[in-house]
Description:
Blueprint: H1 12-15, H2 28-38, H3 44-61, H4 72-88, H5 94-106, H6 114-125, H7 137-149, H8 156-171, E1 174-178, H9 185-198, E2 203-208, H10 215-219, E3 221-222, E4 229-230, H11 233-241, E5 252-258, H12 263-266, H13 270-273, E6 278-280, E7 286-288, E8 294-300, H14 308-311
Parallel strand pairs: 1-8, 2-5, 5-8
Antiparallel strand pairs: 3-4, 6-7
Amino acid sequence: NPGYAGRTELPDNLKALFRPVTMVVPNLELICMVMLMSEGFITAKVLAKKMTTLYKLAKEQLSKQYHYDFGLRALKSVLVMAGDLKRSSPELSEATILMRALRDMNMPKFVFEDVPLFKGLIKDLFPGLDTPRVRYASFNDAVDAALVDSGYQFLEVQADKVVQLYETMLTRHTTMIVGPTGGGKTVLLNTLKRAQDSLGVPTKMHTLNPKAQSVLELYGVLDPATRDWTDGLLSNIFREMNKPVPEGKDERRYIVYDGDVDALWVENMNSVMDDNKLLTLPNGERIRLNYPTCCMLYEVFDLQYASPATVS
């Protein structure tokens, strides 16, 4: 795949032996319309046009960040969330529902200077609509209490970030927390953990640095001669974590990868991060991610070395 992060170019003498295949970008508007229809939206045609326009404009006008992705997967997750919103609050108008889904799914990932730009785009496409953010009564209070109890200065923006993380994790099983050192990523995670603990949802976090050992030590290794299987660090934690929860207990288990996201080790996680939610080990064993109990979190400085597939 030429010019793709995490892949190498074919040398010219090999390139001559293969014929290249060109791909076209799928018709996003049509896909959008069909998915909105299947989620039960009546004005799907108009909304699909608005949505694809918003993503096109966002791609052109917002700053270029490594972690921005306005492709098909990003669209799909917004559509699924919009469908859930429609079923949970059928009294709202369809434009309002879609606007809320678009805003709440995209806002958390924007850098500071892009927020007003995106808000402006949404205002232009959905004129006259202004819905306040959803407030989770018990969760918001728990977050505020957790921040104050830990001895931190209470900041509205930081508390809102925790709620954004919580909302993102309601719809996705893999979340990346991106930001510079000292930006408050760890505080964010610990506050989420404390808030959930206080609400009676015990949260366990397994933190590991994926770059501290080789890929073989991380995922395990199969000896080609003797077929002996040596379990890896990550495969062991992953298997333990995805054991079923006892009846009637609600708990959360997170793996936190605190280290650089690098195509070397993260490409193997792609099958876990997409809709399959399966970790395939070198010995042919497959472990399913037990979502919503288990989630994966990445705590990383930036996504410069991650491939577009990983980002999306």
